[in-house]
Amino acid sequence: MLSAPAMSSDPTAQARPLAATRPEAPLAGSIAVPGDKSISHRALMFAGLAVGQTRITGLLEGEDVLRTAGAMRALGADISRDGVDWLVAGRGIGGLTEPTDVLDMGNSGTAARLLAGILASHPIFSVMTGDASLRRRPMQRVITPLAQTGARFAFREGGRLPLAITGAPESMPLTYKLPVASAQVKSAVLLAGLNARGETLVEEPEATRDHSENMLRHFGATVSVEVAGEGRVIRLQGQPELRAADVVVPGDPSSAVFPLVAALLVPGSVVTVRGVGLNPLRTGLFATLLEMGALLSIDNRRVEGGEEVGDITATAGPLSAIDVPPGRAPSMIDEYPILAVAAASAAGTTRMRGLSELKVKESDRLSATAALLAGNGVRVEIDGDDLIVHGTGARPPGGGLVETHMDHRLAMSALVLGLATANPVRVDDTAFIDTSFPGFVTLMRGLGANFA
Ligand code: S3P
User: Facing residues of 251 across strands?
Assistant: First the structure.
């Protein structure tokens, strides 16, 4: 058995600029993308709280997930690598131990917010920090509910990291209605509920990704989910005996969208991404692209490790503009930058509504996505929380330099844009792509992308 690799080097250490140029030939090929980021974080955390040894197959070995592995190890879980799989020997609910140093969550909001739920419900002292991007992001949204467990928090102005947590000696179960549609906040409350006696109840006004609920059940917790209008009411019975349970992580739909949209935009292309997760609370972009006239097909639908997966093929073709309703945002919250890139080539004006949550991602993605397009000759407007893209119906001009603001999805979106524009698109730094999609540049080059 091999031990897990040390945390890879800090992607902020050295900027990696890159330019994308329209390829001479179509993109072609069949690939698999790395494992789902949301599911990978949760697999490490839940396995670390379970009794026994969990085998995780297909874990995303991106910077963000490696941060979670590092933190869970610092809390006493035994985590190692076995060939391509990962093994986690958990400590049981309430069994994690005080870390001897600050927990550095790097660029990952999911890691920091979910872990806050675990730390608040263990009687230990801990401090979390992150990179410059994560230290700008709001943590108050998890502190507010978690403070009601009896945990105490100290933090920078505006609820920013670094954050010190003195966990509750006896965690109280929460009843909480989410003020924003956030799977991270929902998951933080549920994770805290694991070590509280009694029932934890979370009400979400709009349904968000339900990987925590699914995986908690997989590890033996009692979780009920009731549909309530557009939202859901989730109930968790506290202090279950979580038992180790192997996890197979599907390909990340939020990564698959980059090669697939590239194939839609480069004339003549046909690209298949195999084994993509198709959880309906994650697939809003595919529904939207189909409504825009995209040639997308899904084959070989199957259930793997409790999640539906399939092979998705994209064939290049014209796209038409669309009005994307705000209710679709939770199911495609990470996909707006790449949708905006697709919309730039579509015929007509696309309006994406209700994007307030984009302002608090790895960057202010609403303004950064607008800047990405505007700097490449695409007419774009922000109207309140809406993003409006005036599609060219042809090749957008390109020729700009995109600032990625430590945001992996902006970097990948900009590179895909450059495959479709008349002139190359330059990107200031692609290093952060490693947070979610290690190997992106190589994989895309293998399909015929012109990145240099
Ligand atoms: C995630 C939830 C989403 C998403 C993020 C991953 C998760 O964030 O943007 O990339 O794994 O729960 P919010 O919960 O803040 O919407």
Answer: 35, 276
**Cβ(23)–Cβ(265) below 8 Å:** no
pLDDT interval class at 13 (50, 70, 90): low
What dotted CATH number matches 16-36+250-451?
3.65.10.10
Please state the pTM of the whole predicted model.
0.97
Closest residue (by CA) to atom 13 of ligand 1? 182
The structural domains of the chain, with segments of one domain joined by +, span: 16-36+250-451, 37-240
Entry field: residues in the chain = 452
Q: Let me know if the fold of 16-36+250-451 is the same as that of 37-240.
A: yes
The answer, yes or no, to whether residue 218 has pLDDT greater than 50, is yes
Tell me which of 311, 334, 407, 429 is the catalytic residue.
334
DSSP string, 202-253: EEESS----HHHHHHHHTT--EEEEEETTEEEEEEESS---B---EEPPBPH
Q: Which residues line ligand 1 (CB under 6 A)?
A: 38, 110, 182-184, 187, 209, 333-334, 357
Which DSSP state fits 132? Answer: T
pLDDT higher than 60, residue 199: yes
Torsion angle (degrees, nearest 10) of CA 78, 69, 184, 386: -170
Peptide bond into 11 cis (omega under 30): no
- Using CA atoms, how far apart are residues 191 and 221, in angstroms rounded to an integer? 11
Q: Of 372, 414, 341, 439, which Cα lies nearest the Cα of 20?
A: 414
CB distance 314 to 263 below 8 Å? yes
Indicate which atom in ligand 1 lies nearest the CA of residue 333. Answer: 9
- Could you report the per-residue pLDDT of 318-340, keeping only the tens digit for each? 999 999 999 999 999 999 999 99
Q: Residue 360 has which token pair?
A: 């608090």
- Looking at the domain covering 37-240, what would its CATH class be? alpha beta
Reduced to 3 states, what is the DSSP secondary structure of residue 240?
coil
Question: How many Å apart are CA 160 and CA 411, to the nearest integer?
Answer: 25
CA of 109 to the centre of ligand 1 (A): 8
Q: Where are the alpha helices (DSSP H) in 195-347?
A: 211-218, 253-265, 284-291, 336-345
Q: What is the mean pLDDT of the chain?
A: 96
- Give residue for tokens 């990978």: 40
Whether 334 is catalytic? yes
With a CB cutoff of 8 Å and minimum separation 6, the contacts of 383 are none
**What is the rounded distance in angstroms from the CA atom of residue 224 to the CA atom of residue 237?**
9
Q: Per residue in 363-400, pLDDT tens?
A: 999 999 999 999 999 999 999 999 999 999 999 999 99
The token duo for 247 is 């996890």
Which tens digit of pLDDT belongs to each residue from 31-69?
A: 999 999 999 999 999 999 999 999 999 999 999 999 999
Residues 6+ apart with CB under 8 A from 255: 33, 34, 37, 436, 437, 440
Candidates 41, 38, 54; CA nearest to 88 is 54
